[in-house]
Design brief:
With 197 residues, the protein is mostly beta strands. It has two domains: 86 residues, Nuclear Transport Factor 2, Chain: A (Roll); 101 residues, no CATH class. The chain contains three helices and 13 strands. The chain has an eight-stranded antiparallel beta sheet, with no helix packed on it. The protein has a five-stranded antiparallel beta sheet with strand order 1-10-11-12-13, covered by helices on one side.
């Protein structure tokens, strides 16, 4: 509920970027498969299996009605990878995301034969990139580990991309909100919000 409240108060004119992302159809691509046998041997009674690889990457897998899903979280990375698989173990969907807030880069969708059928580039509208946002955050000395910190982005009703940042100010009396033009990198809105009840 915290994130939903903050997103509406900060980016009220924004529709999620997924609605406006660029779509490109292609025919062929390599495809990853899900290791069903290993999952079946290790899953718990809730049909979940989580493990850590040698390079400290956390992989959480689960089974759903039509197949399998997994979330891959590399150590010290801002982003995670989401994979969805068909019941036969072939890849259905893959892409990176910033936890709970937005999809990043190019997401790919496949048919059950393994052919790439759709690509969606979520970064394309944002000429002011995530790296630029990180530079902005560093310049402002914003604590990215704060309980209320979040970065979001989306396409406004004017079809223009915007970034949003929410963080706790030092006095801990209010939350600071910043809205940034996703092309020019200019601040277009800044203010303070009460903590959600």
């Amino acid at each position: 509920m915290v994130r939903i409240y903050l997103l509406h108060s900060l980016l009220i004119i924004i529709v999620m970027a997924s609605c406006k992302a660029q779509n490109n159809n292609t025919k062929q691509d390599t495809m990853k498969t899900f290791d069903i046998e290993t999952f079946e041997k290790n899953k718990n009674r809730l049909n979940d299996y989580t493990f850590i690889t040698q390079d400290s990457t956390t992989i959480a897998q689960d089974e759903w009605q039509f197949g399998y899903e997994e979330t891959i979280k590399p150590k010290n990375s801002y982003f995670q990878t989401f994979n969805k698989y068909y019941r036969n173990g072939k890849l259905k969907l893959t892409g990176d995301f910033f936890p709970n807030d937005f999809e990043k880069g190019t997401w790919k969708e496949y048919n059950q034969q393994g052919a790439l059928i759709k690509e969606t580039d979520y970064d394309k509208p944002f000429k002011f990139t995530f790296k630029d946002i990180l530079k902005f955050i560093k310049k402002r000395n914003i604590d990215m580990n704060g309980d209320y910190f979040e970065i979001t982005r989306g396409i406004g009703t004017d079809n223009h991309p915007y970034w949003g940042i929410v963080y706790e100010i030092e006095s801990k009396l209010k939350l600071q909100t910043i809205e940034i033009d996703g092309v020019l990198g200019k601040i277009v809105g800044e203010g303070k919000e009460n903590y959600p009840e």
